[in-house]
UniProtKB/TrEMBL annotation:
InterPro entries: DSBA-like_thioredoxin_dom, Thioredoxin-like_sf. It comes from the Bacteria. Residues 5-207 form the DSBA-like thioredoxin domain. It comes from Hyphomonas hirschiana VP5. One of its GO terms (molecular function) is oxidoreductase activity. The lineage of its organism: Bacteria, Pseudomonadati, Pseudomonadota, Alphaproteobacteria, Hyphomonadales. This is Putative frnE protein. Coiled coil: none annotated.
Length: 221
């Protein structure tokens, strides 16, 4: 039997990059369990316009008090420190644009259909948090598709036509209706869940707990 883990995340969520690395490490630590890692869409702020907004202005509107700014600075430093341990090169100081991430989720869906979901997520995180690229821009998304060996021409056409827009939006809405209010969230076999970029050790225990809930296969004969 397979443990199907759905990672609900957003490519503009810095904790989700950390969460991706940690769930991958946890899976590597459970070679005795067959795990299928699937990526599901979640928009931290679906009100962001399609063209995106200025990053500093956006963050300033959300965190205006001195205390809030101090907490934000502390959180970023914690992420930089955690990232260093996971070989994640965050460069928050370079980010100038807060994109709408919806089309990036569409790219992940297409990549996942080709067995490249994790590669797409990693490439999107790196493009945004390290290279400060606008991952809401179709040209950037096509470049990312090309970098993971997807057919760039097909991806460009799909982006233009609005393919899978309704499906991705419905999926994202479904997880909100399930009560998910923060990411990353991991759901195992739609039965047990854990929220947050937990350590690989905790996620390993989560996987083993989920595996223990699966019905036991009966021997043939």
């Amino acid at each position: 039997m397979t443990v199907a883990i759905e990672m609900v995340s957003d490519p503009v969520c810095p904790w989700c990059w950390l969460g991706l690395r940690r769930i991958q490490a946890a899976i590597a630590q459970t070679p005795d369990i067959k795990v299928q890692l699937l990526f599901r869409p979640y928009e931290l702020d679906p009100t962001i316009p399609a063209a995106g907004v200025d990053y500093k202005e956006y963050m300033g509107s959300r965190v205006s008090s001195p205390e809030g700014k101090e907490r934000m600075a502390a959180m970023r430093q914690a992420l930089i420190d955690y990232g260093a341990a996971e070989d994640i090169p965050y460069r928050f100081d370079a980010v100038t644009h807060r994109p709408n991430s919806f089309d990036a989720h569409r790219l992940v869906r297409w990549a996942q259909g080709q067995g490249k979901g994790a590669e797409a997520k990693e490439a999107l995180f790196r493009a945004y948090f390290n290279e400060a690229r606008n991952i809401g821009d179709h040209g950037v998304l096509v470049d990312i598709a090309r970098s993971i060996d997807l057919d760039a021409d097909i991806v460009a056409d799909l982006l233009k036509t609005g393919a899978d827009t309704d499906i991705v939006r419905q999926e994202a809405d479904t997880f909100r209706q399930m009560g998910i209010s923060g990411v990353p969230t991991y759901i195992a076999n739609r039965r047990v869940a854990v929220q947050g970029a937990e350590s690989a050790e905790k996620l390993e225990r989560f996987i083993r707990h989920a595996a223990a809930q699966l019905p036991q296969e009966r021997p043939a004969g």
